[in-house]
Amino acid sequence: MKIYPLLIACSLGLATYTISPKAEAHKHFNKLENISKSEKITEKGYEILKKDNYIGASEKFTEALNINAKNKFALLLRAFSKKEIKDYKSALVDVNNILEIDSEYNYAALVLRAWVHINLGNYSEAIDDYSQLIAYDTYLKDSYGNRGFLKDIMKDMEGACSDWQKGGELGNEKAFSAFENHCKSV
Questions:
Q1: Residue 56 and residue 110: Cα distance in Å, rounded?
Q2: Residues 78 and 65 sit within 8 Å (Cβ to Cβ)
Q3: Model confidence pLDDT, tens digit, residues 131-179
Q4: How many domains, in total, are found in the chain?
């Protein structure tokens, strides 16, 4: 079985820089004027998160969620913190809760959930998440590339080649290289 976790992680790293929970936090706190108690605690958690203290940040986000269980932003940042400390099952619970709320953070939550699914070995679920991301924006070159690598792991070379080709056409160099190296004979 071919495993590409490093390539997937590198590709995911590119996607998470453009759609990272940290970037979402910056936008969120810059636009708020009236911050509730739960949001004030979330902001303190975010300051801890910026120092890469993921356990401390997670505790603050939990405190904020104890006040307001529907604080979508605290859920997103706690899920990110949990992912960083490799508590993938807890991160998955938080991300799924965000997606159930119908949040403005669904896009970032799907990127995060795909990453968590990969680390849990749930490749089919990660493929589903990338498919949803592509449905949001068909120009997500990283989603096509990452989904292609997952399809390769699942022995779906036709699907992998199709995704790598699309990702390559959109400018994903890793997807283009994978297509060139693995798909010329398919």
A1: 24
A2: yes
A3: 998 887 755 788 899 999 999 999 999 999 999 999 999 988 999 999 9
A4: 1
SS (H, E, C) the chain: CCCCHHHHHHHHHHHHHHCCHHHHHHHHHHHCCCCCHHHHHHHHHHHHHHCCCHHHHHHHHHHHHHHCCCCHHHHHHHHHHHHHCCCHHHHHHHHHHHHHHCCCCHHHHHHHHHHHHHHHCCHHHHHHHHHHHHHHCCCCHHHHHHHHHHHHHCCCHHHHHHHHHHHHHCCCHHHHHHHHHHCCCC
CATH (domain of 89): 1.25.40.10
In a domain, 63, yes or no: yes
The structure tokens listed for 67 are: 């006040």
Query: How much is the pTM?
Result: 0.72
Evaluated on CA atoms 163, 169, 171, 176, the torsion sign reads positive
| Domain around 73 | 20-105
Instruction: Report d(CA 61, CA 78) in Å as an integer.
Output: 6
Rounded distance between C-alpha atoms, residue 54 and residue 62, angstroms: 12
Residue 126 in domain: no
User: Domain for residue 91, yes or no?
Assistant: yes
